[in-house]
């Protein structure tokens, strides 16, 4: 760590020198422009960026299918605004995988193609992306998926179950966008300014978005089990519906706590959620005992449903823990 003494020039201007090593490493010399970003009691300084868009290139010669789609997602989440995918010859299968990956990501579009390259670009500004709006939307979609997956199960509605599985892509799309914005906030102070949230709060929201993405995954798992199961007996069906309602309440209350600005209210809501998680766990064990009396194969599949609902409530408990940390006094 280096220190510098603040001086006064011209009677009213505070000045401080920059460490020469840092300035040299970052191409700072006489006449260079630097940017300042206030963050509570800190002031972040960075060289002024000459490029508005971050461009990256990836060799996709040995990539196809899911691997290629994952590579595109990784480049997007890492923060590249322009992604160039290159190989000696882009195959039709690779083009399909690239387009499918782009459809899973907010703002990413194919803007150019040749026989050797495919160029994608993020067409949205960071200032247009809101983590708060993203996690609010994730909350609504994930909870509707969870409720509909149980409805599909107890009513033997395969169309509804298939719809739940398809909606998982919507949650994933918002999750990737949240991850992209969060990484941008960590990497570039200007992004934090555009987003309008402290980096610590962005971390809390990003962490909670991950929990909501997992809730959606378990809703998808229940929907897929619903496609394999026939009619569920009335008693365990009613118990599963009640368990889903309890898990839903845990997630709703924890998200209310996370988004609450008043610390006392947020703390009270989060602590309520923690108690609710214990109640859900107790009830889940009761429901698990009920389904064990059914046909062995049906009992096994319904046991997985109980486990997914219990885990969804646990993810709500994790959000409550994050809400408690967000509401706690700052050191």
Could you characterize what this model shows?
This protein is α+β, with helices and mostly antiparallel strands and 331 residues long. It has 3 domains: 7-47; 55-126, 2-Layer Sandwich (Translation Initiation Factor IF3), CATH 3.30.110; 128-327, Methane Monooxygenase Hydroxylase, Chain G, domain 1, CATH 1.20.58.220. The chain is built from 10 helices and 8 strands. The strands form 3 sheets. It has a 4-stranded mixed β-sheet with strand order 5-6-8-7, with helices on one face. It has a two-stranded antiparallel sheet with strand order 1-2. The protein has a two-stranded antiparallel ribbon with strand order 3-4. Helix 4 (131-155) runs parallel beside helix 7 (199-228). The mean pLDDT is 89.
Number of strand segments: 8
Question: In CATH terms, what is the architecture of the largest domain?
Answer: Up-down Bundle
Query: Which sequence of strands runs across the widest sheet?
Result: 5-6-8-7
Q: Looking at this structure, what is the CATH superfamily of the largest domain?
A: Phosphate transport system protein phou homolog 2, domain 2
Tell the overall outline. flat
- State the helicity in percent bands: 55-70%
CATH class of the largest domain: Mainly Alpha
pLDDT below 50 for ≥5 consecutive residues: which ranges? Answer: none
Mean pLDDT: 89
Major β-sheet profile = 4 strands, mixed
Determine Rg (CA atoms, Å). Answer: 25 Å
Taken together, the total number of domains comes to 3
Can you tell me the CATH topology of the largest domain?
A: Methane Monooxygenase Hydroxylase, Chain G, domain 1
Span from first to last CA? 21 Å
Strand content: 5-15%
Q: What is the H/E string?
A: EEHEEEHEHEEHHHHHHH
- Helix count? 10
Helix-strand category: alpha+beta
């Amino acid at each position: 760590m280096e220190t510098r003494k603040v001086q006064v020039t011209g009677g009213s201007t505070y000045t401080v020198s920059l460490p020469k090593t840092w300035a040299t490493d970052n191409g700072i010399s006489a006449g260079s422009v630097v940017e300042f970003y206030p963050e509570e009691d800190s002031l972040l300084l960075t060289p002024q960026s000459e490029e508005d868009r971050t461009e990256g290139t990836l060799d996709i010669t040995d990539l196809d299918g899911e691997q290629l789609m994952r590579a595109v997602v990784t480049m997007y989440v890492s923060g590249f605004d322009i992604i160039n995918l290159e190989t000696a010859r882009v195959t039709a299968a690779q083009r399909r995988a690239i387009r499918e990956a782009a459809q899973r990501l907010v703002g990413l579009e194919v803007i150019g193609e040749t026989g050797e390259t495919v160029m994608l670009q993020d067409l949205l500004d960071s200032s247009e992306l809101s983590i708060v709006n993203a996690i609010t939307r994730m909350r609504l979609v994930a909870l509707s998926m969870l409720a509909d997956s149980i409805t599909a199960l107890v009513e033997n509605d395969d169309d509804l179950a298939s719809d739940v599985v398809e909606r998982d892509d919507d949650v994933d799309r918002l999750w990737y966008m949240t991850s992209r914005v969060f990484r941008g906030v960590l990497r570039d102070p200007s992004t934090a300014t555009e987003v309008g949230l402290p980096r610590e709060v962005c971390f809390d929201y990003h962490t909670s978005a991950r929990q909501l993405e997992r809730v959606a995954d378990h809703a998808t798992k229940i929907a897929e089990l619903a496609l394999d199961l026939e009619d569920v007996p009335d008693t365990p069906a009613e118990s599963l519906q009640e368990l889903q309602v309890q898990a839903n309440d845990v997630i709703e209350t924890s998200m209310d706590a996370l988004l609450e600005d008043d610390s006392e209210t947020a703390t009270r809501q989060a602590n309520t959620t923690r108690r609710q998680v214990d109640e859900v766990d107790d009830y889940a064990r009761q429901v698990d005992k009920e389904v064990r009396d059914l046909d062995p194969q049906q009992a096994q599949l319904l046991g997985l449903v109980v486990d997914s609902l219990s885990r969804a409530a646990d993810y709500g408990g994790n959000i409550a823990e994050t809400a408690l940390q967000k509401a706690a006094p700052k050191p």
